[in-house]
Write the structure tokens for this entry.
Amino acid sequence: MIPLHEVPPPARPDPEDDELMALVAAGDRNALATLVQRHQRFVLVTAFRFLADRAEAEDAAQEVFLRLWVSARRYRPETALRAYLRTITVHFCLDLKRKARLTVLSGDRDMSSRADPHRDIEAMERQDALERALQTLPPNQRMAVILFHLEGLSVREVSGLLDTSPKSVESLLSRARTALRERLEHLLRR
């Protein structure tokens, strides 16, 4: 039997996001590093869906975590940190869109692991057509489509991020679907 004074203390479980945010609010950079490690991929994917450029998405992610550091004292644990990060990311990307009039692209084009190159080419053509059609939408419709269809958010969540009513989001989505259907009609007939 091992003497009690030689038994190591039980390992402390990883701190929850709320605990880490409290530490970040107190200026703990290690807690921020843990949050970055834990949520960086989520923020990168979200930013990439809006910006369509890996380098810009990486820059956006850095800015998002810098904003998280600065706003840590305003964070309230009633909101899940992932939702809070999504809000910061979306608002930052919207700001970039307004300032630089960037285009939105989605999807990954890695074809190396696919079996049918003809099907891949057709899929890429459809994806390109969708991306071009998305670019023609007004920014508020484009963002509603991305948040609802690509990010999988509810109408209520989209309305919160776009700072509008759920009814307005439904209207934006309806108008966007109609416009996309018209622009992609040739693909739908194939």
